[in-house]
Each structure stands twice: as C-alpha cells, then as structure tokens.
Design the sequence.
C-alpha cells in the first residue's frame, strides 16, 4: 500500500528547472570538528536536479546519519538549530518515515530518506531528485535555504547554506557565517563536477 502523503498531496515533479542553474553548500573546515562536506545541485535537462554529495569526517558512532534541506538559511551566528524544519511544501510532516520506493510521498527536503542514509565516516552519492526546484519562488525551491546533517537520533551535527555556483564566496572560514555574496571575491562557472574538500 502507498504510504501517507502530504496534506497537499504528493510532491510534483519539477520539469522546467532553468538549464545551467547550479547551487552548492560547503561545510567549512574546522566549524564542526573533523566534518567536511559538499552538496552540489545542478539542473538536468527536464527531469529534476542532479545532486552530488560528498561528506567526510562523520562520527564513528551515531549513524545511520540523516541529511535534509531545511527551510531557513543559517544565520550569522552559525546556529544549525535556526534552520527550522525540513523543506516540506506539501505539508507531510515527519511523523511517518519516508518510504524510498514512493519518493513523491516524502518531504521534498528529505534527501537521505529518499536516496539513502550515510552509515560510515565518509559518504559519496550522485542521484537525480525530480521533486526539488531550482526556480525561485516555488515552494520546493532550495537555493536560498540550507542543508543539515543529523545523527540517527536527529541531533544536528553540521550545516551549510546553499549559494548559486556563479556567486560563490571565497573559501569559507571556520568562523564566518553565512558566507554570503557580500563577502565574496571569486566566481565559478556552473559545472557538473563536484568540489572536493581539501
């Protein structure tokens, strides 16, 4: 049987993401202990968004880990708690776990629920998610939001804000949040390659 879905129904596939749109979020060295990570998202031609996920330095215990797109960006104080809940424009909620065989019924921002949970100190994955949007103004748009990594018990252990790849800040420091364009001094052309943390 199909699992419960959102109060507004199943998530709708996004088929018209702007070609070349690309966003990335980078966990800065030293901000969250040994954890580093990059989430890069690029519009595909008509069938969603390709994600490239690279995490390293995850704890040796506490998994399987969860990671989600959250509603709010990280504020200047760097608090992962301030990102609020998962991106959930169809009002599904978290009470019922996501069933990966029915991704349209999951919260839009529940990337690990739909595509697999990290269960080691490193994690690399590439997949296409048809339900997130790269169109500013849509409920499923995530380009002005954040992602958060959690322990299995949902404790938040790391987070980073998304930025357009053509408007990336220079290498983020361990102390500066939210790495906005105001402190940017470099730009990078959109690409499908994944930035690898040093």
Sequence:
């Amino acid at each position: 049987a199909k699992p419960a879905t959102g109060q507004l129904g199943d998530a709708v596939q996004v088929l018209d993401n702007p070609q070349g749109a690309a966003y990335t979020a980078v966990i800065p060295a030293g901000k969250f202990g040994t954890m580093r990570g990059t989430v890069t998202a690029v519009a595909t031609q008509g069938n969603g968004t390709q994600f490239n996920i690279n995490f390293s330095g995850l704890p040796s215990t506490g998994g399987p880990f969860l990671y989600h797109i959250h509603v709010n960006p990280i504020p200047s104080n760097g608090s992962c708690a301030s990102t609020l809940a998962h991106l959930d424009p169809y009002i599904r909620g978290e009470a019922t776990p996501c069933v990966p065989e029915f991704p349209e019924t999951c919260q839009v921002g529940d990337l690990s629920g739909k595509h697999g949970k990290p269960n080691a100190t490193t994690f690399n994955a590439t997949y296409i998610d048809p339900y997130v949007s790269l169109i500013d103004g849509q409920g499923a748009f995530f380009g002005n939001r954040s992602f958060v990594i959690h322990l299995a018990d949902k404790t938040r252990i790391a987070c980073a804000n998304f930025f357009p790849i053509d408007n990336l800040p220079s290498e983020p420091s361990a102390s500066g949040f939210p790495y906005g364009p105001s402190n940017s001094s470099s730009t990078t052309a959109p690409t499908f390659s994944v930035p690898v943390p040093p």
Observations:
- The longest helix spans residues 111-115.
